[in-house]
Amino acid sequence: MAMGMAGAIFFTAQNASAIGPAARHAERPASDVTLVAQRKELPEKYKRRVVRFSTTERPGTIIVDTNNKFLYYIEGPNRATRYGIGVGRDGFGWSGVVNVGRKAEWPSWTPPAEMRARERRAGRILPAVQEGGIDNPLGARALYLYKGGRDTIFRIHGTNQPWTIGLNMSSGCIRMMNKDVEHLYARADIGTRVIVIGPGNRHGNVDYKDRGIDIFGTIFGG
């Protein structure tokens, strides 16, 4: 699982360089501003929406559907906020039931040794540690996923490459638009149950159904 560490594995040496604390604070965007130019319009279906959602899981639970590239935060009976996500490339997919064990704003990124070695063989040099900031692949927020009190090395995090939402681009973690991960971060507390539906069926049987956009909820409660 260590090979499934978060991050944009196609980072170049140039854009993987760290920035100093003063510059980081000066350049950090407001919560609703994305400073990285988007290379293409985000497909409509991946934009944040309130949806009619039936499930036996309790409000406050996060369900991640890696096949369809959606993350759901269950708000209450028959209602959830749906976010578009990017997930791991083929071969890095995973599944399971975990909890949010830690949260961080503008987190630093420590790529594991296996990732650094793999990328070095491909001619890309990753830093040992990259401090938080707008050029950090973990984006504006990170929710660290734990199981049995131990860090799984998987995260739900933001991204400075918003055009990758809906794609398989990272090494196994769950990436969101910065404005979306900030929205989720404010709702999901430490201990939040996270069900990741993906390869291996380690999540078990999960009953849920997305019944489409809740127009009223999207306008007034999204």
Automatic annotation (TrEMBL):
Domain (L,D-TPase catalytic): residue spans on this chain: 60-197
Record EC number: 2.3.2.-
Keyword set, alphabetical order: Acyltransferase, Cell shape, Cell wall biogenesis/degradation, Glycosyltransferase, Hydrolase, Peptidoglycan synthesis, Transferase
A Gene Ontology molecular function term of the record: acyltransferase activity
Database matches in PANTHER family: L,D-TRANSPEPTIDASE (PTHR30582), L,D-TRANSPEPTIDASE ERFK_SRFK-RELATED (PTHR30582:SF24)
Similarity remark: Belongs to the YkuD family.
Name of the protein this chain belongs to: L,D-transpeptidase
Species of origin: Neorhizobium phenanthreniclasticum
